[in-house]
Amino acid sequence: MPDFEKSWFNKAANLRQEANEITAKALRDAGWRYTSLTPNHTWMWMKEIVGVTYCFALSDAEDIQERLDRQSYFEKFPEELDD
Length: 83
Prior knowledge:
Number of helices: 2
Shape: flat
Helix content: 40-55%
Mean pLDDT: 93
Low-confidence stretches: none
Radius of gyration: 17 Å
Strand order of the largest sheet: 1-2-3
Distance between the termini: 52 Å
């Protein structure tokens, strides 16, 4: 398949992979770890938040971390909430 690399679905898969790698790095930088030491021995993202350890799939961990980052940002810059 000489045109496979140029196909839309291959390009989309490559972009998804790149986005997942960026997200995984951001989660690791924020203190998450990717581990199979979970109740079901399933690979998940794990982080302790306010004394409780949570395990999530990538998309859920991304959503939780975004909320944590937004909360932290608005605590530092409350005037930004007035817009």
